[in-house]
Amino acid sequence: MSPDSDDIYWRRANQTSQQLGPTALESAAGTGSLKLVELLLDRGAELSPPADYEGDSALARACMREDLALVRLLLDRAASPNPVNPRSASPLSRAAAMGDLSVILLLRAAGAEVSIGAKNQNPLTAAAMNGRLDVVEYLLGLEKRESVFKDAIEKAEKALDGCHAEVVSRLKRFLEEQHPRKWSRMEKVS
């Protein structure tokens, strides 16, 4: 089968969610089926068709599964490390929410940017909201947007009724140490 085929199965493998839901590649990545993803890619499935109803690419779905081998395969096959869904979440923010540093490091090595996406869907906020202290520590020095720090603190404080106090404390300490002017402006606004 080839991309030029009129075969109904080939067309379905590459149809978008606006037509029928997630593509076969997105679904296979979402279930962690490495062999099926490999087969679909070998047969010409597109890595970056228009996003599904949630906007999550095959790479983002693999990141949510914390599947290092699948993430590596998709990146090796030239998946973009920086697509964002309609809510501005990237594969890196999905991986940060899950807390798998090995996936995060692989994405960063492939060029994933920390400072993409809306402030509430960025990797630092995603990690903070989910209590991923080790990921927060890794991302602290990489994020440069002032609004993101404040958002990460607010979201972490609200998450699970304040169960992420250690993350909030670390974010505040980082701001006090590294960005005293930014921190004093944030405190005045709060």
UniProtKB/TrEMBL annotation:
Record flagged with keyword Cell inner membrane: no
Keywords: ANK repeat, Repeat
ANK repeat placement: 20-52, 54-86
Signal sequence interval, chain numbering: none
Alphabetical list of InterPro entries matching this protein: Ankyrin_rpt, Ankyrin_rpt-contain_sf
Database matches in Pfam families: Ank_2, Ank_4
Keyword Metal-binding attached: no
SMART domains: ANK
Domain of life of the native organism: Eukaryota
Name of this protein: Ankyrin repeat-containing domain protein
Protein's organism: Lasiosphaeris hirsuta
